[in-house]
Fold this sequence. Notes:
The protein has two helices and two strands, in the order αβαβ. By secondary structure, it is α+β, with helices and mostly antiparallel strands.
Amino acid sequence: MTVWHCHxxxxxxxKIARPDGSFDWLEHYPAQEFGIEAFAESVGAVLMxxxxxxxxxxMAEWPHAGKPxxxxxxx
Length: 75
């Protein structure tokens, strides 16, 4: 049986990122351990939207190395 999990970070007003796509509002808060590293290790594949893909693709290191990644887009 396939099990689906969803992990989303957002502000109290329901926003995930600023209108320009930045998420610098998260940087003002101290890092907390929510078990995201263990969660990421436990998944077999990653599904994300195009905007998230573009942000993560620009990172120095691909955060989902070794995992199939699927990008959902209307383009």
